[in-house]
Amino acid sequence: YLIPKGWKVLPLFRNIHHNPEIFPDPEKFDPSRFE
Question: What are the protein's GO molecular function terms (predicted)?
Answer without folding.
Answer: (+)-abscisic acid 8'-hydroxylase activity; heme binding; iron ion binding
